[in-house]
Design brief:
single chain; mainly alpha; Helix Hairpins; 0% strand
Length: 81
Amino acid sequence: MNAQEVRDLSDDELTAKLLDLKKEQFNLRFQRASGQLEKTDRVREVRRDIARIKTAQTERRKDSEAPARTKPAEVKEDKDA
């Protein structure tokens, strides 16, 4: 899964995918610890997919929370000068 595919998913789909990947990561950890893991590269792929999804969720949250700044703040002059 690449970054563009993640951005194309809806919020609900991202949450569901994140939950699935976390479950898979949990199972992969157990398989690695017991020596049953055959595809060791899958651990890395899952970890990076989780990071991509969390990054996309953070970007969306920041975009929705960002206040629209239309005019710059006024500069106050010193009264002593």
